[in-house]
Write a structure and sequence with these properties.
binds aspartyl-adenosine-5'-monophosphate, 28% strand, alpha+beta, BirA Bifunctional Protein, domain 2, 29% helix, ATP binding, eight-stranded mixed beta sheet, OB fold (Dihydrolipoamide Acetyltransferase, E2P), single chain, 2 domains, five-stranded mixed beta barrel, 442 residues, elongated
């Protein structure tokens, strides 16, 4: 008999009819001669009532094919939390149970509503943990965020590009770069799609990419990974204020799309609705003045926001602007990568910006230097060798419009949409100092 998806079992014409479903046993509850199973597939979850003689072989995570009759549940047995909560699949003497793949004994109980395990266990048994509905749901949200980002970038007229991650030089500066043995040469894992997205501006004018980026972060924090997914946009014929409009537009569209698509998941996680009030914009120095005035910490000489500043600024924006976002601009030029354009009005500060969301930076970007000679100067002032960037520099040598862009960290966005405690929970297979799937210290 042809497979019916679990969610389709609740269609009217299925009631009282025989169906076959394929899926995974999630839980088993024995009641005398009857066993209740929760079985899930990609569409949903359904309760199955099976006679003990047929169902006794079944255990959690067994992959099964079950044929039975769809019954309407008695009113007092309806489960409103389940899309199929008013029906069940009844597998009696005429029904059929087939085990497609038998699961060995599980290392932990998968039947609880929340998989309350320590993070190392969640990661040591990642493929199993990911099967749990609540963990899987994180990546349904992530998928909706990717979709929302793509839609928003396409609405801006951007062409999707795919760029290399094996590169000849560090793009973002600093020591946080992985060297790789590339035949008899040295190469690096790309810290961001930055240079390539810029190189493609004269070709497509507006581009976007969803790309892997590698950061040799030598510290273990709850907000850093060594392998990150960046969602980048780069646009030509644009200037600073316009870029702020665009980044805020993409952020709002992406998050609205994901939260609309995943309403049930967000409710299940007990997440407050995102506050989409007018996003306040502050320069770094204005933000630091505000931190002093409102929160009593004097960080006015710092070249960046501290993690506590980011938390406090978001608290302030929520209270005074009903916004879960804040845009912070004009970071010191010296603290920014070589491609960042200094503000012509005050070159000590740059035309750069970060977007904060619920207490953390989820995006950064800038107006870029598009003048070839200025770019050479900027590289030299940072001790960089322009020869290592020959291909990149051709872009500007042969004419590049005023341009700029921005980049969201997918895992950071996912983490803060769902209020997760650790960024590792927002990556299917997180990479950090201690783990490349297997634990490096074991
Ligand atoms: P930046 O280095 O700020 O900018 O990165 C952009 C966004 O990527 C995410 N991110 C990270 N997430 C987790 N772990 C990390 N180690 C990590 N590093 C970065 C953050 C961050 O806001 N090329 C520029 C962007 C641009 O100018 O367009 C860049 O990479 O969410």
């Amino acid at each position: 008999m042809e497979r019916t998806l679990i969610l389709d079992c609740k269609e009217k014409e299925k009631i009282g009819k025989e169906v076959t479903i394929d899926g995974f046993v999630q839980t088993r509850r024995d009641h005398g001669k009857i066993i209740f199973l929760d079985v899930s597939d990609r569409s949903g979850i359904i309760q199955i009532v099976v006679h003990k003689d047929k169902g006794d072989v079944l255990h959690p995570q067994d992959v099964v094919r079950i044929t039975g009759t769809i019954n309407v549940r008695p009113a007092n047995m309806v489960n409103p939390a389940l899309a199929t909560g008013n029906i069940e699949l009844y597998c009696d003497a005429n029904g059929k149970v087939e085990v497609l793949s038998k699961a060995q004994e599980l290392p932990f109980d998968m039947g609880s509503k929340d998989l309350n395990l320590q993070l190392p266990t969640l990661l040591d048994f990642r493929t199993l943990a990911l099967r749990h509905p609540k963990i899987k749901a994180i990546f349904k949200v992530q998928s909706a965020l990717l979709d929302g980002f793509r839609k928003a970038a396409k609405d801006l007229g951007c062409t999707e590009i795919v760029v290399p991650t094996i590169v000849a030089g560090a793009t973002e500066g600093g020591a946080e770069v992985f060297k790789i043995d590339y035949f008899e040469h040295k190469a690096y894992l790309s810290q961001s799609p930055q240079l390539y997205k810029q190189m493609l501006v004269p070709i497509f004018e507006r581009v976007f990419t969803i790309a892997k980026a590698y950061r040799a972060e030598p510290s273990v924090t709850t907000r850093h990974l060594t392998e990150v997914t960046q969602m980048d946009v780069e646009m030509g014929f644009t200037e600073f204020e316009k870029l702020l409009d665009y980044l805020e537009e993409v952020a709002v569209k992406m998050l609205k799309h994901a939260t609309d698509e995943c309403k049930e998941i967000l409710a299940d996680f007990g997440i407050e609705e995102i506050a989409f009030g007018q996003i306040p914009r502050l320069t770094l120095r204005e933000a630091q003045e505000l931190i002093l005035k409102e929160f009593g910490r004097d960080n006015r000489k710092e070249k960046d926001l501290t993690p506590q500043d980011e938390i406090d600024l978001c608290k302030w924006a929520k209270g005074s602007h009903k916004s879960d976002f804040v845009t912070v601009t004009h970071f010191p030029t010296a603290a920014k990568p070589f491609y960042t354009k200094p503000d012509p009005k005050n070159p000590e500060y740059s035309l750069s910006y970060d977007l904060l969301f619920r207490g953390v930076e989820i995006l950064s970007g800038s107006q870029r230097i598009n003048d070839y000679n200025q770019l050479l100067e900027s590289m030299k002032s940072r001790g960089m060798n322009p020869e290592a960037f020959e291909l990149y520099l051709q872009t500007f040598k042969y004419g590049c419009p005023p341009e700029g862009g921005f980049s969201f960290g997918l895992e950071r966005v996912t983490m803060h949409v769902l209020n997760l405690a650790n960024i590792r929970e927002a990556s299917l297979f997180p990479r950090d100092m201690e783990r490349v799937d297997i634990r490096l210290n074991s």
